[in-house]
Design a protein that fits this description.
Order of helices and strands: HEHEHEHEEHEEHHH
CATH topology: Beta Polymerase, domain 2
Strand content: 15-25%
Radius of gyration: 15 Å
Structural class: alpha+beta
CATH class: Alpha Beta
Largest sheet: 5 strands, mixed
Helix content: 25-40%
CATH architecture: 2-Layer Sandwich
Strand order of the largest sheet: 1-2-5-4-3
Distance between the termini: 34 Å
Number of strands: 7
């Protein structure tokens, strides 16, 4: 997977999005491995059309059972609140309309930090907000990284 290439394609395409999940935590110092890029996109018609242009250019299709015909993302689906699990030329990309607590792009912006991943200037969900989400999660895999995220925050200079 090339997270940097995925994010560069999105920024080059002027897509408005926030990086959430594992990559956002890793970019802020969390020492674990992630195998996909999770983003929450702004769900305006203009932004979704830009997103579709980028997704087409990187060969994005929905992850499906082996042998199933590929299905490309569509505008009507990306305008919704759903979770779109895609495979691309650069690796897996999860495009989310909302995350835990029903939070969409506009809700998340105040809880982001600016950063660079490769050459791409992006907005990352803050590690404090990621921690809050993981603490509230009922999923064992999310709860398991809570101590790790707490340690990253404690190690930060004041």
């Amino acid at each position: 997977m090339s997270a940097a290439r995925l994010l560069q394609a999105l920024t080059d395409g002027e897509v408005r999005f926030v990086v959430v999940g594992g990559l956002a935590a890793v970019a802020q110092g969390a020492p674990f491995v992630t195998f996909d890029v999770d983003v929450v996109h702004e769900r305006s018609v203009e932004n979704v059309r830009r997103l579709l242009g980028v997704l087409s250019g990187i060969g994005a299709v929905y992850v499906r059972d082996p042998g199933s015909p590929p299905i490309a993302p569509r505008e009507d689906l990306l305008l919704g609140e759903g979770h779109h699990v895609l495979t691309t030329l650069h690796g897996r990309l999860d495009v989310l309309g909302r995350i835990e607590g029903g939070r969409g792009y506009d809700d998340l912006l105040p809880s982001t930090v600016e950063s660079r991943v490769g050459d791409a200037a992006v907005r990352l969900l803050s590690i404090e907000t990621i921690l809050e989400i993981k603490r509230a999660s009922p999923r064992p895999k999310d709860r398991a990284i809570v101590p790790l995220l707490e340690a990253v925050i404690r190690r930060r200079p004041s």
